[in-house]
Structures are given as structure tokens and as C-alpha cells.
Specification:
Layout: H1 2-48, H2 54-64, H3 67-81, H4 88-98, H5 107-114, H6 125-172
Helix pairs in contact: 1-2, 1-3, 1-6, 2-3, 3-4
């Protein structure tokens, strides 16, 4: 009897854990978007004020940030530096593809980030800065949506996970 009770508690806890993990995925997207925005604003500073070439700026920024943003800048700098990518835009696209499996970003988020590729290194500095700022604004809207979704659906996922665990435990009784 005691073993059965422990099993049922385990089932309820597992349901609650699944709900919590779904909530954390939603929250991680918001964090990644916010961190990417910080990275883009830092990239503007590197390009505009420090006047660094993109590969040098990316290498510097990869040490400044962590997580997805660091990986993205590091991969872009490496792709450009190894001659794998002929242009900064191609290096950016290669970096986006390489971090695709470690991100919680939606296809829309990725599309917004990919929109930088045609202008990076291919147009004058002011045009690049304007495009980076436009992408930052679009990511800000995405981040706000992600925050709202996380807030609303996060509670729902946690509650559903717990209730599903209880339902399964009742069925197993």
C-alpha cells in the first residue's frame, strides 16, 4: 500500500514537473530575445562608436555576453574569420543556423534576425546601424509578446501539468 501511494505521488509530481518545464521553455524565449536585443545594441555601439569591423565586434561581444547571444556572435566571428563565409551576411546566416538547435526562438524571431544578413558588411555604416535598430525594435515587440505568452500560458501549463498528474493518479487508483 505504501509503495502504491509513493507511486501515485510520483505520478502527480511528474505531471507538475512537465508543466513547470513547459513554463520554463516559454520564459526562456523571452530571456533569449532580451539578451539578443542587448547584444544588438552593443553591436551598434561597437560599429558606431568603436568603429570596429564586424568580425572584431562579434569576437569582442561573444566574450561580453553569455548563452545564445555569445554563441551567435562567436559563430559569426569564426565563420567570417575562417573564410567559410565570403561576406558578413553569410557569416551571420551561418551563425544563426549553427545556434538553431539551442534556441527557443520562433520562426518569426529567426526571420527577423535573418533579415540583417543582406545589409551586414554590404552597405555603409549608417545603413547597417539603421537596419540593426529596426531589427531591435521588431525583437522588442516579439519579446513583449513572449513575455505576455509566458505570463498567461505559464500559469496554465503549470496548472494543467499538476492536474494531469492528479488525473492519471486517480485513474491508476
Amino acid at each position: 500500500m505504501m509503495l502504491r501511494i509513493c507511486g501515485l505521488i510520483g505520478v502527480v509530481a511528474t505531471g507538475a514537473l512537465v508543466g513547470q518545464l513547459l513554463f520554463l521553455q516559454l520564459r526562456e524565449r523571452y530571456k533569449q530575445l532580451s539578451n539578443l536585443r542587448d547584444g544588438l545594441r552593443a553591436m551598434v555601439t561597437e560599429i558606431d562608436y568603436a568603429r570596429r569591423p564586424l568580425p572584431e565586434a562579434w569576437a569582442e561581444l561573444s566574450d561580453t555576453f553569455d548563452g545564445l547571444t555569445s554563441s551567435l556572435f562567436s559563430e559569426a566571428a569564426a565563420a567570417f574569420g575562417q573564410g567559410e563565409a565570403v561576406t558578413a551576411g553569410r557569416a551571420w546566416l551561418k551563425a544563426l543556423r549553427s545556434v538553431d538547435d539551442v534556441t527557443e526562438l520562433t520562426e518569426e524571431d529567426k526571420r527577423i534576425l535573418r533579415s540583417l544578413a543582406p545589409v551586414l558588411g554590404a552597405s555603409h555604416r549608417e545603413d547597417q546601424l539603421a537596419h540593426i535598430e529596426l531589427v531591435d525594435e521588431r525583437l522588442a515587440r516579439q519579446a513583449e509578446r513572449a513575455r505576455e505568452v509566458s505570463r498567461r500560458r505559464g500559469r496554465l501549463f503549470r496548472a494543467l501539468g499538476f492536474l494531469t498528474g492528479i488525473l492519471v493518479a486517480v485513474i491508476l487508483l
